[in-house]
Design brief:
alpha/beta, Arginase, Chain A, eight-stranded parallel beta sheet, two-stranded antiparallel sheet, 10 helices, globular, binds N-{4-[(3-aminopropyl)amino]butyl}acetamide, binds zinc ion, metal ion binding
């Protein structure tokens, strides 16, 4: 299968994040994508291609236009204040505080985010934009008949909602690609999110729509980030009611437990009648992941790919999380190899 990748991801390199009360170097770092690319090459998965430029229009099909323009222009406004350290949000509206959009950059950073896990530096927008173009380019391969494609996206996207960033995510690459598949002629698309964290942003974007089925297998939000979404009773709304499935699992879940949820998700997808599948491929379910609590092992990812392939659907794999950098390439490419085998 074809991999899409851009070196632009290196332009995005956050300094620090808060983890368990401690300021730490960002877990979401450039070496993650480098390790996956190296494994794609060393296993001979297939050709690696640079993305085409589809512009902002397909991004604004799922994201609020003002939010996208804010992301694009934020660094220039920050730098104009004489600031050169990472840009970060610091204040958010809680219950009963009306969410008006303030005028200055600090207020707007809070307005357009839900947490502080989204540092930006001078090159971040270019990396964010290119990551979305990587997903769009990979999507285009399915539209022209390939059975699978891999979007090696960085930064990741599944926590980014219609008009907010969070959790290392700025633009929702998988959602942007899904909408492009629909705009290119697909009637229904299923999104399977296997990242350790609930794909709250993707859920937000498609929550009221029946043309996109969203399923996420993740750490139980009672105990795990993103804390406020990912419960099993979130089933969709309005016309989208019944098209959202969450599988929250307990800490310590291993392949035996995890694959039961996968089997149910695959059964639901098979019954939906999708024209294509988008997989939000996070490998932070790995037993050694530094910020997660599942117990999948490297060979389990081969099984994951094989079982996803059993659907027989054209499938787009979009890279999301995974922070055990030494094994991230092995685990991510195992899913793709398992799919292709
Ligand atoms: N102590 C993705 O995997 N911090 N984002 C969790 C746990 C945020 C993860 C802290 C994790 C965001 C794309
Ligand atoms: Zn994750």
């Amino acid at each position: 299968m074809q991999t899409f990748y851009s070196d632009d991801h290196r332009l995005h390199h956050g300094q620090a994040e808060l983890n368990n009360g401690q300021l730490m170097p960002c877990f979401e770092k450039p070496s993650r994508a480098d390790m996956v690319l190296e494994r794609v090459r060393s296993t001979g998965l297939g050709p690696v291609q640079a993305p085409e430029d589809f512009g902002l229009a397909p991004i604004k099909r799922v994201h609020d236009s003002q939010f996208v323009d804010f992301l694009k222009g934020a660094w220039a406004r920050w730098a104009a204040l004489g600031r050169s350290h990472d840009m970060l949000p610091l204040a958010w509206p809680p219950r009963r505080m009306p969410a008006r959009c303030p005028e200055d950059i600090d207020g707007q950073l809070g307005y357009y985010s839900f947490d502080a896990g989204v540092p930006m530096n001078a090159g971040s927008w270019q990396a964010i934009y290119s990551s979305a173009q990587v997903a769009l380019s990979a999507q285009a391969r399915l539209a022209t008949g390939d059975q699978a494609a891999f979007a090696l996206c960085r930064p990741p996207g599944h926590h980014a909602g219609i008009d907010y960033m969070g959790g290392y995510c700025y633009l929702n690459n998988a959602a942007i690609a899904t909408q492009a598949l629909l705009d290119g002629g697909a009637r229904k698309v299923a999104i399977l999110d296997v990242d350790f964290h609930h794909g709250n942003g993707t859920q937000d974007i498609f929550y009221q729509r029946p043309d996109v089925l969203f399923l996420s297998i993740h750490g139980d939000p009672r105990h795990e980030y993103p804390c406020f979404a990912g419960y099993a009773d979130e089933r969709g709304e309005g016309a989208g009611l019944g098209y959202n499935y969450n599988y929250p699992l307990a800490a310590g879940s291993d392949w035996t437990r995890w694959s039961q949820a996968l089997a149910d998700a695959l059964r639901v997808i098979a019954g939906y009648g999708a024209d294509a599948l988008v997989v939000s491929l996070g490998v932070d379910t790995y037993k050694q992941d530094p910020i997660s609590s599942f117990k999948l092992d490297s060979p389990d990812y081969l099984r994951m790919g094989e079982q996803i392939a059993s659907l027989g659907l054209p499938s787009l794999f979009v890279m999301e999380g995974g922070y055990a950098v030494e094994e991230i390439g092995i685990n991510a490419v195992n899913v793709l190899s398992g799919f292709s085998s």
